[in-house]
Amino acid sequence: MKISLPIIICALLLSALVALPALAEDAMPNYELSVSFDLQKNLVRGNAVITLPDNGEWVVSTEGLDVTKVVVAGIPLDPAMTNEAGGMIVKTGGIIEIGYEKAFSTDNTVDNPENVGVVGSVVSDEGISLTGGWYPQIEGLANFHLTATVPEGFMAVSEADVITGAETDSGTMFTFDSPHPSAGMTLAAGRYTVSSDREDDTDIYAYFFDEDKALAREYLDYTKGYIKMYNEMFGAYPYKRFSVVENFLPTGFSMPTYTLLGRDVVRLPFIVKTSLGHEVLHQWFGNSVYGDLSGGNWLEGITNYMADQLYEEREGRGADYRKKILADYQSYVKTDKEITLQEFTGRVDPATKAVGYGKGAMVFHMLRKRAGDDVFMATLKDFVEKYRFKEASWADIRAEFERAMGVDLKGFFDQWLTRKGVPDFDLYDPHVIYLDGKPNVRFTLKQNGEPYDLRLKVRVSSDKGEFVKVIELNKKEQDFDLVLDGTPREMVIDPDYDVMRVLWEDEFAPTISRLLGDEKRVLVIPNDGVDDYLQLTKLLRGKDFNVMLDDEVEDADLSSSSVLLLGADGPVHRRLFAKSPVKDPGEGFEITVMKNPLNPDKVVAIAVASSREEVEAAARKIFHYGKYSHLKFIGGRNVEKDIAKSDMGVKVRLEHKVTGIKPSEAIPLDDIVKDVMDKDIIYVGESHTSYEDHRVQLDVIRTLSEEGHDLAIGMEMFQRPFQNAVDDYIEGRTTEREFLKASEYFSRWNFDYSLYREILQYARAHHIPVVALNLDKDIIKKVSTGGLDALSDEEKGKIPPDMDMSDMKYRRSLQEVFGFHANAPKRQFENFYQSQILWDETMAHSVADYMKEHPGRQMVVLAGVGHVAWGRGIPQRARRLNGKDYAILINADIETVEKGIADYVLFPERLAAPEMPKLGVMISKKEEGVLVEDVVKGSVALSAGIKKGDVIVSVDGVQVDDVGDVKVGLFDHKAGDVVEIKVKRKRFLGRMKEHTIPVTLK
To answer: How many separate domains does the chain show?
Structure first.
């Protein structure tokens, strides 16, 4: 078995994972065990002599062992009885002798990539690794004495202060002697080269296979450094020797006096700087101060904090490490996997690790913040001295810190040990107000769920430096007011990750752990097969990934799940990102994780590989690089690893930006047009109801046309299915009324046609093509209510095959437009978002398609400012499709003058729009026709005699079949004109009669 770990996860054996009854040493069992081995049969043969004190009932378990001899108090018993029962109960003290054997082949190991470091026992010619289930078990502490006869050429290691060896006819007999009680024994043996050194009174050994013996010197030197460091922190090393032992299995175990590290692990260059120190520290926490786990396993939390976290802190990366703890918890600990710290006994998967190792470490960090560094370290040192070779619990830790700090810590420990989950708070209304001449930063924090008692650091940067304050949040909702000297610019809450909490979206980078830890995970494979990715597909299917083909995936699957896409390109890639955001890796295997464009709470990963061999070499290793957003392997060796950028802390901008322009330097529109006239595309944004905006558009078109540019005009206002109607009008084949009716303008755009009339008439007069950019309104409406999945296959055929949904800034701006708030259905916004992207992408494709068919022609695009500002709507998408350069012009109000919003911001004079006469009726399309729902008081319709309930048949001779036909009939009339309105009106008994009603417009 081969495995590669970024970080070794230490698993304490019996001394850390079994609740131990408190016994005086003279009341403890004495356990003498002698074993030998048959490598060909993978067999261990043993003889155990157990002397039990006469102080109660004892359980001796032989489960899984083949018992060959049982002698109790000198009386032989039938071994078959013990085998059948799986052990025995002894009600009085005395001596028990048990002979047994057990085969441990490599089949006994389980290589779980999500729980590396915990494997079964093995006896083989490659080596011996006995870490559980290899001798009769008793509960609690005992004084152990082990003798092991191993094959010739093998060296053996077990828990011992003194190890002696003697050659025998059958191999080498090792004797292991320890003066201290423990909760069990382990044994490792192999063909080792042994190196040694010394630190103070401690002998240090390195047991390495010949191919790795060159690593021994580095491991010895680092081990010396760790022992010296922890001697100073927590008192003298508790044993006389410590050994680093290489294992042929992928283990990461810590036992009293030695650590057992897998072969592939010790070869990783960073292990000596990280995991080795973790293993050494367990000699204090877990292997000499034992764990009373009745109230939860605290050992992994303190070791993780005072080893892994401490090393990063000393390198200036403590906040990053603690942020990773929060990210791992949020990634892996889902509702169905939540446990309290009281319930944590040992790691079995990433979720339990995130609780016991991660949340546990953060409890000690928060305790340190309350106590102060000096009190915290002094109390831990006293604690180790007090409980050396005894068991201790969370309750004992609490008692020691209460004594040292002089405060009641019940509330602190209760909230962190007995509650599932972690704190989650929202920030409301951050703003600055000036009182007594000084700026006050005011904000509200609201906790979701039962409130915690939290101490949050708040850092505010100003023109006079940084202001830092620790605030106490202990209610459901609290207001805060911070008084500063300087002008506030930015506020950051919990910038150093001193509190265990939920990360905000901008803090939570897209990582592999988020993909692997999600409750809903989808693996999307190419329709043409997955031969190269077969190993990865098989592995992930076993990890509960829902495997789907490209053409099976619906947007509901993508938005509700974290997704892994295989291959560099495919239909789903194009639906989410327009074009794949990853490139062919060349040689190797590469995986990149991004936020899911359809749901930022989820992620999308893309895996690409150059061959099946590269996939097989790397597939299992991605589980050990959870904190990264991008990885690349060549031949199974990691060559690239990166984490996507994310905020450090909850950031809020407080600075009120004020921008201005110099009126003396204002540029005439003609000069602006000349400055941008060489661009392939000129976008002129509009507010649909502002007549002056449309006059600016016309001026731009007119100037370019008069300069001789070969133009086309792209218009958001017309939908692609009606391109022929637009062409017929522009080319003079139809009248304006016929054009308006044929294009269904009044029912599909709803804005006054007189606003656009001059532009269209200019285009008609100067033979400038007009391109209908927009998608069928019915499709947009359908998507806005039901998402893309609501479309029929025929409708899906009318939409672009590639759409970029990954612009998170654009998404946030659309959320503001949508008026998104906590009580709004999330799905409703997701549908709105999809419809807006579809809208933009369709118009961008229309622009690109037209320019491809008409090379050399310049286009002026007229669209709402939201579709062009910052280039996020149409411009950047069109450039993605055709690479054409562009310029953006928008008309501004006081709030839109922001850096980067456009190439030019224009300030046209306000103009009154031409008014189209109105009847003053509320109408709608019904089964019987266009029905008058109401008549406006004081309107010309009311004066002429049109009544509620009338069905309009025609207007000025134009037949009325739809609401838009009424507007077509009124089109081009002016005040004082008389228009004939023909209606049908109900008479007695429901009969309908037609009436022709002359209406004088005004």
So the answer is: 6
